[in-house]
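hi got a favour to ask and not much time before my train. below you get a single protein, a line of residues and a line of whole numbers that encode the local backbone shape. could you go over both lines and see whether the tokens make sense for that sequence. a few lines back from you is plenty, here it is:
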Amino acid sequence: MSLETDFAMTRESLRGANDESTYGGITSFMRRRYSRDLAGVDVAVLGVPFDLATTNRAGTRMGPRGIRTASASLAWEQGVQGWDFSPLEALAIVDYGDCPFDAGTPDQVPDQIYRQARDILATDTGLLSLGGDHFVSYPLLRAHAEKYGPMALIHFDAHSDTWEDDGPRIDHGTMFYHATKEGLVIPEHSAQIGLRTYNESSLGFNIFDAPAVHEQGAVAVAEQVRGIVGNRPCYLTFDIDCLDPSFAPGTGTPVVGGLSTHQALQLLQNLRGINLMGMDVVEVAPPYDVSEITSLAAATMALQQLCLYTVARGRA
């Protein structure tokens, strides 16, 4: 092990993994360098510690920190199991830190998140965001759709988040209703995976609920999703409550009967080839976690998204 430490500060190259203590140092994502300089950067990792849209248990404001801490145990690997490369080698990645906003003026937060994402995307840097509750995907989608046009959405969740809402409420259960009505996403070319709560309207989304994944298998479902999405610009959002509470107890609205971490990994790995343009992992609530297994699952799903993004950019 090198005596050099805190590669979140001292790393010279934006690529590669280092043999470093997993229990010390600054909690950057995957021990990437903290930087706001995006020159030559392929992906910026942005924390969005917002949970004022939560309708059940709060605590996801601590999600970005929890995910970063857990990611240290993954950062020294020279490759990613299930892939034939490491995105840390293929991509120049920085941890951009957290999105600044004033929680005392919650009505202004959506626009603050949108503007932060828009400014990053304007530099042609990809964006991996760490929530925060699931509402944060809405302003992030606004910024991505502004740059790339209407998006195909791949949505992992226990909930549809498309419940009808006729007002400008900040709510983590209605934002994809608004995103659809505003033309940010194309529902007929989008897929929701792992759902296990009732909503009488699909809003036109292709739904592969948790029983469908259990019965058909993750590989078969992923193949269908790839066909639905095609080569359209795609945004992937992973709500950690897509996983069964036995695999991810640290979340605000757990629902039994969900996916295993193995199924989730199979799904993500078999989505290889989608035209991924933006991604997030949300709804990690460390106050309810057990032995940090939820944060570890979230960090792993984020790393899988980076693998998908690497392939989409032709770097693997």
